[in-house]
Amino acid sequence: MVPAGASAAAAVLAAGFDSIRETPVEGCERAPYCMMGVCFDCLAEIDGVANRQSCMIEVRPGMRIGRQMRARMIDPKAA
Amino acid sequence: MARYDTIVIGGGLVGSAIAYGLARTRLRVALLDEGDVAFRASRGNFGLVWVQSKGDGAPHYQSWTRRSAQEWPALAAELEAKTGITVGHQRPGGVHLCLGEAEIEARHAMMERMRVQSGNFGFDYRMVDRRELADMFPGLGAAVSGASWTPYDGHANPLNLLHALHRGFAENGGRHLPNSTVTEAGAAPGDFRIRLAGGDISAPKVVLAAGLGNANLARHFGLSAPVKPLKGQILVTERARQVLPMPITTIRQTAEGSIMLGDSQEDAGFDTSQRPAVMQTIARRAVLSFPWLRDLQIVRAWAALRVMPPDGLPIYDQSERFPGAFTANCHSGVTLAGAHVNLFAPMVAAGELEPALELFSAKRFDVSATT
After folding, report:
1. Which of A77, B115, B255, B277 makes an SS bond possible with B123, Cβ 3.0 to 4.6 Å?
2. B245 at the A interface (CB within 8 A)?
3. Which of B139, B241, B291 sits opposite A71 (nearest CB)?
4. What distances in angstroms separate CA B218 from CA B183, B211, B326, one per listed residue?
5. Cβ contacts of B139 on chain A, cutoff 8 Å
6. Residue of B238, B255, B292 lying closest to A76 (CB–CB)
7. pLDDT tens string B220-269
8. Is any Cβ of chain B less than 8 angstroms from the Cβ of A26?
9. CB distance B298 to B225 below 8 Å
C-alpha cells in the first residue's frame, strides 16, 4: 500500500516488483528510476494506454498497471 | 607552437567528417570545436540521407548528393567496424507524399526536370499512385493522393554518426580541441596560425567548417561564406513497433521505433525557440498523411538552425589569396557525410578541389562576376 497521492511507479516499487518494462530494442528489464519524469524507465501500460510514464501519474484504486513489453504496438488500419 | 598538417575549424558533422577523412590518411589533424555556446546544427538533425529533392536546376548538386549517398554504405560499415558505433544507415528508398492533385502535378514536373537535367548520369524515379502507395504504407490517410519515389533515399542516426566520426578521428590519431572558439587567425599562403587559449597552433592547410560561424570566419582567409540560419522544428513520438517501411521527406521511423516529424522552415534569425503554431502545422500534416499517428504521444520536440547559403546549395572553395584555406558549408551534413569523408577530404589532402566542385564556389554570389 502507498499513501494517497503517490505515483503509479511508487505503488509498483512498494509492491515489490523489480521491473516494470522491457526496453524497445533489446528487451532488457527496467524499473522506475528517476521518479521525476525524466528517464522514461518507468513506462507502463496504464488503464489500456501504452508507454505512460508511471512516475508522473497518481495511483488510484482499481487502476490497471501492466508491463510495457518492448515498443508499443500500433495498428495502422484501426485508425 | 603546435604544428599540424591540417586544422579543421568546426566539430559538427561537416568538420568532423572532413577531419576523419584526413586523419584516416595518417595526416596530423587538429579539429577545433566551439563548445556548448555553438548553434550546433548537427545536434538537431532529422537524419535523412536524402537525394530526391536535391538539385532541381543544379545538376552538379544532384550528382554530388548522389555520389554521397553512394558512399554512405561503405562509410557506415567502416565506422561501425572501427568504432563499434552503429550509425543505423538504411537505404530502402524513400517517398515524398503529395496531398492533392496540384501537389502531384508540381512534384511530377520537378522530378521530370531533374531526370532531364541528370543527362547520362540518369535519375530513376517513379510517381506512385494512391492505390499502390496504400499497399506500401498501411493506414495511409485519405488526403494523400500519391507520391514520388526514388531508390536513392535513406536515413541514419545523426547523433551516432557524429559520435562515430569523433571516435574514429581520435582512434586515427586526430587531435580534438573542444572549447576552441577561433577569435584570431593569421593567414599567409600555405601558412595558417590560430590563436587558442592553450597556445597557438599552425598548419599549412585550414578547413573552415564552422557552419554559421563561417560567415565571419571566411574573410580572414580571403574567402566568403554568406550563410544564414534557417530554423527547423522537429517533433518526436514515443517508440513503437516498426510500421514505416521507408523514410518519407517529413516523417521517418528510427531504428529504435521513434517516429520523427519535421521539415519546417522559418527565417527567424538566430532565434532557436519553438513555436506552437509551427508545431501544430507539422502535426496536422503528419496526421493527414497517417491518421494513426494521432494516437502516439509526442515525447520530445526541438528547434535548430540550418546552415543555409542564399541558394540552398553547398559552398566549397579554396582561397585564391591564401591557397591552403578551404571552406565547406551546407545544410545537409548527414546526406553529404559520405562525400565529405571519401571525396572532399582527399581533395583537401591533395591541395586541389576537383573541377566538378568549381560550381559550388561562393563566387556565384559575387554580383560583378555574373554581369
Report:
1. B115
2. no
3. B241
4. 12, 11, 9
5. 76-77, 79
6. B292
7. 999 999 999 999 999 999 999 999 999 999 999 999 999 999 978 999 99
8. no
9. no
Listing from the earlier edge strand, what are the strands of the sheet with A65-67? A49-53, A43-46, A65-67
> Alpha-carbon distance A16 to A75, whole Å?
33
For chain B, the residue count is 371
A2 CB neighbour count, 10 Å cutoff:
15
Chain B residue whose CA is closest to A24: B256
CB A48 within 8 A of CB A64: yes
**pTM for this prediction:** 0.94
**Rounded distance, CA A11 to CA A2, Å?**
6
Give the integer Cα–Cα distance in Å for B370 and B364: 7
Nine-digit cell string for B80: 561501425
* φ and ψ at residue B120, rounded to 5 degrees: -70, -20
Tell me which residue has cell 574567402: B223
pLDDT tens track for B275-316: 899 999 999 999 999 999 999 999 999 999 999 999 999 999
Q: What is the pLDDT, as a whole number, of residue B371? A: 44
Structure-block grid coordinates of residue B239: 517508440
For residue B325, the SS3 value is strand
Residue contact A24–B239, C-beta within 8 A:
yes
Map out the domains of chain A as residue ranges. 8-67
Residue type, B304: A
- What pLDDT shows up at residue A79? 63
Pair B210, B40: CB distance under 8 Å? no
Using CA atoms, how far apart are residues B311 and B107, in angstroms rounded to an integer? Answer: 20
- In angstroms, the CA B326 to CA B351 distance is 9
Whether residue A24 and residue B257 make contact (CB cut-off 8 A), yes or no, is yes
> A51 and B138: CB-CB below 8 Å?
no
Judge: A78–B292 Cβ closer than 8 Å, yes or no. yes
Give the minimum alpha-carbon distance from B238 to chain A in angstroms, rounded to a whole number: 7
The interface predicted TM-score (ipTM) is 0.88
Which domains are delineated in chain B? 2-52+158-226+312-370 (3.50.50.60), 94-150 (no CATH), 228-308 (3.30.9.10)
The three cell numbers locating residue B240: 513503437
Residue B147 has pLDDT above 90, yes or no: yes
- B56 contacts B110 by C-beta, under 8 angstroms: yes
For residue B161, report the phi and psi dihedrals to the nearest 5 degrees: -60, -45
B299 touching A, CB under 8 A?
yes
Quote the pLDDT of residue B369: 52
